[in-house]
Amino acid sequence: MSSTAHTPLPGLTVIRVPVSDPRVRPLLRELGDEYTARYGRDAHAELARYPDEEFTSAHGGVLLLLVEQGEPVAGGAFRRYDGTTAELKRVWTHSAHRRRGLARRVVAELEREAGDRGYRRIHLTTGPRQPEARGLYLAAGYTPLFDTQADPETIGPLPFEKHLAVAPTRLGAGEQPVTAVRSSPTAAGKSLTAERRTGKASEL
C-alpha cells in the first residue's frame, strides 16, 4: 500500500510505494535501458539484484515517487548500508520531465526520510559514464570520495557521501550534532580506502 507524504512542488505529490507497485515499472525500465546504452551490457539484472524487502520501511529503506497528474515523473530509493548509513539507489527522472530540478527534489526527499529514520550519513555510487548524476550529487553537497581530476573511466563506480544534520530534539544525553558539511580531503581518502577494502563501492 502506498502512502502520500506531502506536496513538494505545485502539482507534484510524494508517495511511498513498494517495488511491486506498477508505477515503479517505468523507473526500472528506463534506468535499465539507459544503463545498457551507456555501458554496453544488459543492466536490468543489476537493477533486480536487491530483494524488494530492502526498499521497505521494515528493513530500513524506502522507495519514493514524485507523481504529477497521476503519473510518476521521478523517483528514487534508499536501503540500509550500515547502522548509521543509508545508500541511495535508483534516483531517476522520466526522460520527458528532465531539466526541471526533479532529481534534486528526489534526493532532498530521500535525505529527509533517511534522517527521520535515524540515519546520519548517506552513501552512494554512480557510474563513470553518468556525468549528469555526478553533477547532481556535487550540486547537492555530496563529497566525492575519489580523485575528481582523474579520468572517471579509470576509477569505475564513483562513490560519494554526505553527513546529515541531527535535529536537536533527537539528541540524547552527551550526544553532539553532526554538522552537514563536506568532508575534508583526508577524511574522504580514508573513507574511500575503507569502501574499497570492504568492496562496497561497486554499484552503478
Q: Please, could you describe this protein's structure?
A:
- Helices cover 28% and strands 24% of the residues.
- It has 5 helices and 8 strands.
- It has helices at 25-39, 44-47, 102-116, 131-139, 185-198; strands at residues 3-4, 12-16, 62-68, 71-82, 85-93, 121-126, 143-144, 158-163.
- An 8-stranded mixed sheet has the order 1-2-3-4-5-6-8-7, sandwiched between helices.
- The longest helix has 15 residues, at 25-39.
- The chain is globular, with a radius of gyration of 17 Å.
- The protein starts with a strand and ends in a 6-residue tail after the last helix.
What is the terminal separation in angstroms?
28 Å
| Adjacency order of strands in the biggest sheet | 1-2-3-4-5-6-8-7
What shape does the CA trace take?
globular
Order of helices and strands: EEHHEEEHEHEEH
Radius of gyration: 17 Å
Total number of strands: 8
Can you give the mean pLDDT?
80
Largest sheet: 8 strands, mixed
Number of helices: 5
Strand-pairing-aware structural class: alpha+beta
Runs in which pLDDT lies below 50 for 5 or more consecutive residues are: 1-7, 168-204
Strand content range: 15-25%
Q: Can you give the helix content as a percent range? A: 25-40%
Q: What descriptors fit this protein?
A:
single chain, alpha+beta, 8 strands, disordered N terminus, 204 residues, disordered C terminus, 5 helices, globular
Care to give the gist of this entry?
With 204 residues, the chain is an alpha+beta fold.
Reconstruct the topology from this structure.
Blueprint: E1 3-4, E2 12-16, H1 25-39, H2 44-47, E3 62-68, E4 71-82, E5 85-93, H3 102-116, E6 121-126, H4 131-139, E7 143-144, E8 158-163, H5 185-198
Parallel strand pairs: 5-6
Antiparallel strand pairs: 1-2, 2-3, 3-4, 4-5, 6-8, 7-8
